[in-house]
Amino acid sequence: MAKLVFTPRQAAAELGVSGAALRRAAAGYEVVFGMLERDARGGRLFTGEALDRLRLALKAVHAGQVASVETALTLIRDDSTLPQIQPLTRSGGERTDLEAVTAELLAALHLAQAHNAELHLEVKTLREHLGSLIAAMQGMTADQHEMKRQLEALASHAAASHGTIHGLPGVVRDAVNETLSADRLRVALHSAQAEPRRSWLARLLRRSGA
Q: What is the superkingdom listed in this entry's lineage (predicted)?
């Protein structure tokens, strides 16, 4: 009767491990028990006995009883008892300390979350305020361009109506610079809307005469 052997793929499936894990375990097995049988291409063949030994060794490693498969296999070979895992017990004081630390960490986490929410709210408020400032600045720029356009149109009208007046371009330029200054912009805009068109022309003419 032919002896039952397992290929590496079959052995890995039987043990529930990957091919790489089986190769490492098989290398340790050969150190302890000697070389495994090989097929025609040199691949390892695992007997049922070898699989039983490897199963026990892997279980001992996973349970933390030994540090390596080779150590477990050595104990199995020598009929030694595998070390038993001592259950981890904690005293009442240790449990109380752990509970206190856990509560402290949770409180710190909640505080950090609340602080983070406040920061998000502050950033949102700052963004809204910045948007309002930008909109106001854009509005002032539009008012400046409109005032400049009105003054230039007034100067053109004065030149067309009364001919070339000495010093008029300089007067217009000075009036534009004065009107578009940051401190006088709103006053100038109010005056431009409140006074009639003829009063602007009269003022420009008086300046040119001076």
A: Bacteria
